[in-house]
Amino acid sequence: MKKIKLKIVFILLVGLVTSCGTLGHLKFYHYDASKYEVEKDLLEVIKSHTDAIPLKWKKNAVGMDFLDEKFIYFKNAPEEILRIGFTGDSIQWKSHTSSKLALVGVFRGNEWLFEKDMSASEKERLQKRLETEILSKMRHSYKKEE
Prior knowledge:
6 strands, 5 helices, alpha+beta, six-stranded antiparallel β-sheet, 146 residues, TATA-Binding Protein
């Protein structure tokens, strides 16, 4: 019985990881580079172009252990934290030469907001901020969606 429960939990977790969690996403960014290459590039840009998350918000920038999420703090108005994450799992990441990054949500001081909580104009503003202030500074470029 214990093995069956473990298998069910594993299947559910894999489903969450490959679907970018149950929170949905605002936009996917597709790269012709491995997750590890894109992640290294992304972390370098975040480190050199953003401020550290302030202590008052640190506890809100904690993801789920089984999802590979990153948090990007923007001090300039509007002050906010963007939540992004790579889709897939470690098996896919090791075997694929492409990757997909998702913009998942935003925190503005009192709660996390996700796709269902935002207007189309707010989603567009967040996408533009991520693209302009972070993704455009990376060595790897994402594919434009048509």
